[in-house]
Amino acid sequence: MELKALLEKRFAAKSFDGKKIDEAKITQLKELIRLTPSSFNIQPWKIKVVTDQKIKDQLMAASWGQPKVGNCSHVFVFCADTNVIGKIDELIAMLVKNGAPKASLKGYEDMMKGALSPRSPEALREWAQKQVYIALETGLLGATSLGFDSCPMEGFDPAAYSKILKLPANILPTVVMPVGYTTEKATPKVRFATKDVFF
């Protein structure tokens, strides 16, 4: 399916029928998300995928009772990894492992750390969370391309999610994407006109 067709077909599903998505398709979706671009290629995210119904029910309660969290097939919890400098070190180590001479990466490493190290913890958190939304978009369109539905969600309690999922302090739940097979029929797409978007 072409990108325009995916964008036209995708919509925010508010309810799901509870049917499980085949794990092979979930594996494909994970791979699409893994390929998402990011600033400096740091990929400052971790994504928790939840299928256990008891945990989904707890997450639903922490999402102001939104049923889609409980009746979806899988809940993708997109988290920002605020250990940004550590992610740079991981990236450099991975590039070396893939054959890049470490000496040739010094300028790249210095540039990334020079751009990000001076920032406050709050600024680094905000930067990492912005990056997470790029991965979310891949997930939304990826789900549509694989034949199932999704919904982007900010309506949840991040602190409660962290507690339920037992996440380390540097992994911050940022946005949630339940996926499954919707019980709804898509309505016509409504978007601002090109003249109102571009200037």
Properties at a glance:
single chain, 199 residues, alpha+beta, NADH Oxidase, four-stranded antiparallel beta sheet, 9 helices, 48% helix
Task: Give a written overview of the molecule.
- The chain is an alpha+beta fold.
- It has one domain (3-82, 121-197): 3-Layer(aba) Sandwich (NADH Oxidase), CATH 3.40.109.10.
- It is built from nine helices and four strands.
- It has helices at 3-9, 23-34, 53-61, 67-71, 84-97, 106-116, 121-145, 158-165, 194-197; strands at residues 45-50, 74-81, 149-150, 171-180.
- A four-stranded antiparallel beta sheet has the order 1-2-4-3.
- α2 crosses α7 (121-145) and α5 runs antiparallel to α6.
- The longest helix is centred in the C-terminal third of the chain and has 25 residues, at 121-145.
- The model has no long low-confidence stretch (mean pLDDT 97).
